[in-house]
Design goal:
The protein has helices at 36-52, 62-76, 79-97, and strands at 9-11, 16-23, 26-32, 60-61, 101-102, 121-128, 134-153, 156-165, 175-179. With 183 residues, the protein is of the alpha+beta class. Helix 2 (62-76) packs antiparallel against helix 3 (79-97).
Length: 183
């Protein structure tokens, strides 16, 4: 059964029942022209059927994937790094996207880009440097202040993005963690 929290409403000027529901960022409207509760149930049934279609057990919630990620962080990171990553997850990442589902790549992923202003948030950038040295940059509080072109070169994708960081209570704008391969 779908996770619908609303019910169809009668629109007297249009002589129909209508319900609006949303799934995975897509919003749809379902209607019924039958009068009485029969029409309301029909519109609700249509919405529930759409919400239920395509549901499979191959998808995971972000919170579950985060738990798996934390296992790898604990296996490769130092104590202060582990604590920092756990705090970011608990305070910034999981409250925002923890309940969202991550789809199976065989069904495809849609990325929607827009020009809406983003709120300040935590940013984590990970990279592999020369000699397989791992580098993680953690910016506790920053906002995107400019976005450039996306470039494609030699199989790599470049996102020209400028972040403006706000100093934390210690006066630091970011933290860098560098470890040798396998450390």
């Amino acid at each position: 059964m779908g996770l619908r929290t609303n019910t169809a409403v009668w629109l007297p000027n249009q002589n129909r029942w209508q319900i609006k529901v949303q799934k995975d960022g897509v919003r749809r409207t379902f209607t019924s022209t039958k009068t009485g509760r029969t029409g309301q149930r029909e519109a609700n049934r249509k919405a529930d059927a759409w919400l239920d279609e395509g549901i499979s057990s191959t998808t995971k919630r972000c919170a579950d994937v985060w738990a798996e990620y934390m296992i790898s962080v604990k296996a490769t990171g130092g104590t202060s790094n582990i604590e920092q990553v756990e705090k970011f997850g608990r305070n910034y990442i999981l409250p925002v996207i923890g309940a969202r589902r991550i789809g199976d790549l065989t069904t495809g992923i849609t990325v929607k880009a827009n020009s809406k202003e983003q709120k300040d948030c935590c940013w984590v950038v990970e990279m592999i440097m020369k000699d397989d040295v791992n580098k993680r940059i953690v910016i506790p509080d920053a906002a995107v202040t400019s976005v450039g072109d996306i470039t494609y070169s030699n199989g790599a994708v470049g996102y020209n993005t400028t972040l403006t960081a706000v100093p934390d209570t210690s006066g630091n704008t970011h933290y860098e963690y560098i470890t040798a391969k396998g450390a």
